[in-house]
Amino acid sequence: MTDPDRSDRYRPRLAGVLASAAGLLLAACAASEPAPAPTPAAKPPALAAERPAGGPGGTEPDALPEPAERAAAPDARVQPARLGPPLTPEDPQAARRLIRRHGFEPQDVGLLVTDLAGRELAAHNATQAFIPASVAKLPTAVAALELLGGDHRFTTRMAATAAPRGGRLDGDLVLVGGGDPLLGADGLVHLCRDLRRAGVRKVAGRFLYDASLYQERPAIRDDQPMTAGYNPGVSALSVNFNRLRVRWGTGQPSDPRAWTVPPVPSVDLSLDRRRPRGRESGAWLPAGADGRWQLSTGARGYGQDWLPLKDPARVAAEATRQVCQRLGVELPAPEPGRAPDGAATLAAHPGPPLHETVRAMLRYSNNLVAELTGLAAGRALTGQRIGLSQSAIAVSQWYERTLPKTDWARFDPGNHSGLNADARMTPAQLAAILRFAHDARYGRAGRTLIELLPTVGLDGGLGRRLQTPDTAFAVFAKTGTMNFVSGLAGYLPTESGRGRVFAIFVNDKRLRRAYDADPGRTGWHRQAASWGSRAKDLEAALVRLWTDPGRIREPAPTAMLQRSE
């Protein structure tokens, strides 16, 4: 299931109809329950967004006591938001009343709104720790921009141990990963063309690939499904977001086949025509004892999918070999290795400036881009080859030193993407980071964080949430979604020029723990979708409360404006 708050598109026709029929909506909302959210459309393959995560269970020391009558069973009926008198930001209980109206308990929600000087405008559980989901990408973005600079570029290189002579390289050629999160086919073409311009037509020595800049992992999280596209391997040499297109079928059920595009020797596929119970056609199954990927195609004889790579550096090298072959440079089969000291760079491909990488990360919420960007920040801090958890600790300690007036005791992101049900942060901590970054300008282009965030209006990064005329260009924010976890944080510019920062977390940790303990239980999908829709409705209602103090708030539950989220 794709992150629902990032895969939708704004529908002006629906918004217009709703705006012209507000009276009818009031009656309809009061009398009926919003329909559960349908599964959203898949994202374009260029930047796959986060998926709901199923982390391990365990103790939750920051959880507040919960009412005894709250059940963790699936299929619980979800009630619509309850109407009441209009709310205004001057009402000190406005946020708490909205929380109740949307069916949440007070301990489920944490929020904070401040002006840029840090003066509190609204708060509820602001110092309690919550699961942030992909809102955790905001601390990653700010730390990377501050430590590396907006103009930093991740560079992938081709280094050689000898000089080419007569088109032949008698030494070794090494493909050196620089941690570029956006390396794609264009970068491989760049490298191979420059290699040819450097006089290389054939490599007689070895073709090595070097991903030693960071510690490699076969997946972002070991407790997530290894076949999930949002959980690929992590490597300093990553290409195409560490996903590989797979196609299968010949139209003849008696002769099924599967293949990758491009074909890479290290990815071995097999088909399983038996459709496992509860799995959709085209679902990846865990690799068999022989290490081959298995694909359950059910009754369907053909199709395509994206395979998350678990040995991404090797696949990147195999793809580079094929591109170079097409462009007239013959390379031997790749082998893992290290570039020796003194190896001369024959070709180099710099990625885009970091501010562009960060904007893509925040808009599309790609987990791999966040982890590689965070690893670069962690390496800048430590100067060492470290892994995801060590890098996250280094960034957390940097925030403690940089913003000493903020209490960082419960700040524990765990990694850089938010794909971690054990991660914790408070609304107060996130608001402090947003205030810190507000006036900073990054790179020669002078980009600010507010420019890099998804925007309500022309930008689709916030899905359908708040996509109405009164909130256009009024909200610049990052979303976060996991099962029974939702968040929204960013900036609320005002006409007076005195902007605000806000952070909202909505968690049901009891349901989350129950889900983690048995993620395959029947009924979770519907309940999680309904819960997530209510959480997003609450976030939208709170933001509307804070964006335009002169308007009467909440003429109808916001579920009627974006009930398909």
Content of β-strand = 15-25%
Shape: globular
N- to C-terminal distance: 12 Å
Low-confidence regions? 1-87, 549-565
Gyration radius, in Å: 25 Å
**Structural class by secondary-structure content:** alpha+beta
Percentage of helical residues? 25-40%
Helical region count? 13
Number of β-strand runs: 18
**Mean of the pLDDT scores?**
80
Major sheet, described briefly? 5 strands, antiparallel
User: What strand order characterises the main sheet?
Assistant: 2-1-18-17-16
Characterization of this structure:
The structure is a single chain. With 565 residues, this protein is an alpha+beta fold. It is built from 13 helices and 18 strands. Strands 2-1-18-17-16 form a five-stranded antiparallel sheet, sandwiched between helices. Strands 14-7-5-3-15 form a five-stranded mixed sheet, with helices on one face. Strands 9-8-13 form a three-stranded antiparallel sheet, with no helix packed on it. Helix 8 packs across helix 9. It is globular.
